[in-house]
Amino acid sequence: MNTAKPNSNQTETITPEPLFFNRRKFLRLSAMFGTAFALAACGVKPTEVPPTPRPTPTEVNLAEELTIEDRINNFNNFYEFTVSKSDVAKQAANFKTAPWPIEIGGLVGNPMTIDASDLIAKYPAEERIYRMRCVETWSMVIPWYGFPLHKLLKDLAPLPEAKYIKFTTLLDPEQMPGQQSSSYLWPYTEGLRLDEAMHDLTLMAWGVYQKPLTPQVGAPIRLVVPWKYGFKSIKSIVKIELTAEQPETYWNKINPREYGFYANVNPGVPHPRWSQSSEVRAGETGHRETLLFNGYGEEVASLYEGMDLKVNY
Ligand SMILES: Nc1nc2c(c(=O)[nH]1)N[C@H]1C(S)=C(S)[C@@H](COP(=O)(O)O)O[C@H]1N2
Ligand SMILES: [Mo]
Question: pTM above the 0.90 mark?
Answer without folding.
Answer: no
